[in-house]
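Annex B.
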Amino acid sequence: MMQLKTKLACTLGPSLSSQEDIAEAISLGCKIFRINFSHGDMSFWRRLADDARQAADKTGERCVLIGDLKGGSVRVAGLDRSFTLNVGERVRFSLDGPVNLPYPEFFETVEVGDTLVFDDGRGILKVVAHRGRSIESEAVRPLTISPNKSIVIRGKEVETPDYLKASREGLEAAVSMGLDYVGLSFVKRAEDIDAVRNYLESRGSWMGLIAKVETPSAVQNIDKICEKSDAVLIARGDLGMHFPLELVPKLQKTIIEAAYNACKPVIVATQLLGTMVNEPVPSRSEIVDVMSCVEDGVDVLMLTAETAVGRYPLESIQWLSNIAETYEKGTRPRRTIPPDSEVMDRFALAVVNLAESLAAKIAIFTMNGHMARRIARFKPVGGVIAAT
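Pyruvate kinase: predicted structure tokens.
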């Protein structure tokens, strides 16, 4: 297997949790593991992290662990099992009822006539009545409402009063587990990232921050968010709940461009190989999607449901690796710099060109990683070794 420039990441969960399976995932080229803090509890998350580390030790590799925070998302609570609605059937959501949304801000924002979107856009409800802190909604298409699933109001954002407050429990868990990165869900502005970084530094943690771009506000503030974060994740499922689906590919390219200009790694997630949740092979359109990500210079391809709850987790990783390897061979890394770039960007590109002309590797000593990121952005053939 060739050493891929496009890194592979996957989500741990019931389908991929044993040390044996994680070790196999590592052997297939996946060394970045996401733990979704929106599902399970602290003991489950810790077991996943411990098993991933032990599997990496057995294979002689180092793995990277990401804790994906719940953030300010609005999620269904009060359910112990899923239920299905057919077209025209209604459901009542309230602040504290059987199907509850424990977010007062949601009921202050929603109005009669609004469209509610579930499950990465698969489920659609229309709000037909609003009574204080409860609403009645009617299914526009058949859908399943499951415990802890996120819900958005199309065209609107629910303002949570304090991003750090909504994230603190997950941050404490990530610090205690010694994770490498945290994914900041539903970031809206650069100040959200500053608040989390300041809090982590006060706890003596220098964990990396991955800004998940999944709201209209985040798209609007993408340049500042890229500047403040350590990496950017394009959460296509949630973007598709806020925006018309036909706009998501365009938004993806816009975010990739912003991350490239900021010298920050960019991750693409959600439904890369969604067919493989239930089937042993991907669809042809999914292969084209992954190919497009590779050609656009995406740094990390991340599987979510495919490995967390899918029937074919290891096969999904193998397919993702095969597709990335096939199209990396014919894709030259992007070597352009923005017109308003700094002189150090031009220096970094010159270093890469010189190293490749000599078939040499690049080693760099860095205090803050800025020059290392500038060089790594161009994906030099021989790789980059950075030391602090």
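The chain has three domains: 7-72+178-328, 83-153, 343-387. The chain has a mean pLDDT of 93. Further annotation is deferred to the next reporting cycle.
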